[in-house]
């Protein structure tokens, strides 16, 4: 229960930390741009094309229409008599709003009066108000001159502008290289109503006029008769409040969700002024009639029905990419043909979004954070509580369910939940963090196991157990090695008179001295029995280095135990005997049933034990076989002779290990002159002088090692 609680807590920490990091990324301009570029595009692709509102029609100017009408493809050179015919025909057909995505900046004296008259009589024509970018001045900033770009409104020719039902700019932000949003009140033009909102006001004017007629009190109070004047003369919130008052005064009880053009206008006046496009599909998803065909249809009474009660948009739009003059990349841009959406179709899409209140609503940072926290927590729980083979498929199913939910909300509620950041950024981050966390915990558990079982198993065995698993411990490895056996002289007598609980502390303290030196020189403790230690050095490579390290370890153990005997807190002395032999040995698991030990097996183990026992009979402490010290110039030994050990057929040459050569010459520098004098007297036959010189040398050092060394040298001479 405690473990499960700890895992849940860890999962929450992982999920919460990654969610916060991802939320900060989503709040950054780069993260939001990636979400818009990929996440929003994926949602459009997964949802697929949908039908736009039937009230919207696009009359497209393309190269084929220009050729059919015998005019240049450059619309600025078209005779405005064509547009006059079009406006008159659309007005006669009963179009509710007509919007030109064309700029009539230059006056045409021959045709402007007729065109202006047609606009005035229609009363519902919206014209594009172009924004000119100018660089009037430079400013100084930190020693650098920076240009100041000013966008200035450029209306159509005065006669045409005055006759139009409304004017409005239409600029589009590109983030990072595609168009995803539009303004209801254009910020680049001083927050004036943008062209889609102007078109909606003209489209809803008939409903507004009827509303004003019903609202007698507001009419008496001087309520504006034009809906466009309502939205143009006040801030969006004030215009919305004024329209709501008109609705209430007329007793118009509006059900929810919004219906009708006035309800669409109320929704359009609500914040924010920036809206995300709800694209209906690829190019020409908006019902499109080409310009020359539209003129032909309007010439016949039956053809006019196609434009009755419609919002008609007129502008350049072609099914051929190279013919487009004003195109924008969107989620539905065709990657094969390169066909983008024309500016005119995007304008019609913006109007359609306002009309059917279907512009996409981003979830927003405030609500995205809880979504990311829940997603991170669930992902963390799966990855922390379950095995990866189970957690990862479940995480995939959870991702599929999240995608299905986001697409459903996107299609039905026009709600945009983050998709790219949670799935592409956050999920791999949670997986990576969970794996790193689990690896850290596994490493910590492994260290704990090694620390625990390292007291009972040799380090090499622990490494093999960790790297290869339990079953590989059945494998047997035969290697060259050196085996060391130790025994504490006088331990039995000490144990007889010491309480067992104190004896445990004594043994642990004493063995710690030996084990520390074995480990310091690269050896491994294989077995401990009472006060005795069995250790080994094993390798398939450098046997000489192995024997050198083992000899140094023996001398280090001898010094360390001698120091311990002087200062231990138990007040006892345990001189240590050591036997050491080298040769082939097998490292294997030894035992049966449910009890096994991993240890070294071979003749060298038995021989090392016999050498340790021999040292007891000889009154020495550090006995090694001749094979151990052969070629090891770093140590000084005393050859004791050839001995037949119990259980062995062949005798074994045995040496007593006295010390390291460098230590002997350093420590006994003042002794050597007396010794050399004794040697010279001995060689000259003066035995009395030799004995005196040797006695003088021994008087300078009372160390047992010195004594053994002198005895070894004298034995050599004699």
Radius of gyration: 49 Å
Averaged pLDDT: 82
Shape annotation: rod-shaped
| Helix/strand/pairing category | alpha/beta
Number of beta strands:
24
Q: How much strand content do the residues show?
A: 15-25%
> Which regions contain 5 or more consecutive residues with pLDDT less than 50?
217-221, 252-259
* Proportion of helical residues: 40-55%
Q: Report the span from N to C terminus.
A: 79 Å
Quick take:
The protein is an alpha/beta fold and 718 residues long. It folds into 4 domains: 2-31 and 361-448, no CATH class; 54-355, no CATH class; 459-661, 2-Layer Sandwich (Alpha-Beta Plaits); 668-718. The protein has 28 helices and 24 strands.
Feature tags:
718 residues, alpha/beta, Alpha-Beta Plaits, 4 domains, 8-stranded mixed β-sheet, 6-stranded parallel β-sheet, rod-shaped
